[in-house]
Design brief:
With 263 residues, the protein is of the alpha/beta class. The chain has 13 helices and seven strands. It holds the Pfam family CBP_BcsQ.
């Protein structure tokens, strides 16, 4: 069956784009068909897939202009299919702001038939907490919602003031049962990072993914060289971390965990 995974940060800067790109590459290395979609206005996912920086094409303009959605697709040198968000003019940006919900409803419909039964769809969302009502169609159609956070005071504060508030989507059962939190940019040498990781493990329990992604300068270096982490630094800590995350994804959707699936 197709697996749709929503990946989002809580406030920006957590590395959700990096997670999306490197998880897609790690799944491809396990012979899994993947399709990544950048829904962030920064339009940075394409750089992780070796797209020239001057290439500004993307899916958002196609959807707003009712043109062929599939024409915005690209493929990385590693074989990952992806849809960049694209660069918008001022006029297009205003159009996007006023029609956001319709745009994402259309996106959900366009993505559903793509990729076949065994495809992984990784959808990267922007400003998740503020715009979750706009993303409802994607959230409803998702199999798992992965919220990326870093083990620090600001994210801990956001968890309690936004995610764990009674008005939050997290208190709706249909979303809570498929929400997972992923710790990124963990610094094992920093006391504060270790302390907040321990607090998150105690408070989030089964909602926290067992895979911890470490901070690694190899990620920045691979991006600067417009190549994937798995090619630039295959023996790095982060490369091993993302491979472990890919294995967890396969395990999570295994027949033992989802006996009713066709996998």
């Amino acid at each position: 069956m197709m697996k749709r995974m929503i990946i989002a940060g809580l406030k920006g800067g957590e590395g959700a784009t990096t997670v999306t790109a490197n998880l897609a590459n790690a799944l491809e290395r396990l012979n899994q068909q993947t399709l990544s979609v950048d829904c962030t206005k920064m339009n940075l996912l394409r750089l992780h897939f070796s797209t020239p920086i001057q290439n500004t094409q993307g899916w958002a303009v196609n959807v707003m202009n009712n043109t062929a959605f599939y024409k915005a697709a690209y493929e990385s040198p590693e074989g990952v299919a992806f849809f960049p968000f694209g660069e918008l003019t001022v006029e297009e940006t205003n159009q996007f702001k006023t029609s956001k919900k319709n745009v994402f409803n259309t996106l959900t419909n366009e993505l559903t038939p793509l990729g076949g039964n065994d495809c992984w769809q990784l959808v990267l969302l922007d400003d998740f907490i503020e715009n979750k009502e706009i993303y409802l169609s994607l959230l409803d159609s998702s199999d798992i919602i992965c919220l990326v956070l870093t083990p620090d005071p600001s994210h801990y504060n956001l968890l309690h003031n936004k995610v764990f508030s009674r008005e939050s989507f997290f208190y709706q059962k249909e979303y809570r049962i498929k929400t997972k939190f992923l710790v990124n940019q963990f610094h094992p040498e920093a006391v504060v990072s270790c302390d907040f990781l321990m607090v998150l493990q105690q408070e989030l329990h089964d909602y926290l993914l067992p895979v911890i992604l470490h901070y690694d300068v190899a990620i920045v270096e691979s991006l600067a060289n417009l190549t994937s982490l798995s090619i630039y630094a295959p023996q790095s800590q982060s490369s091993h971390d993302f491979q472990a995350l890919a294995y967890w994804c396969l395990s999570y959707f295994s027949p033992e965990n989802h006996p009713s699936s066709s996998l």
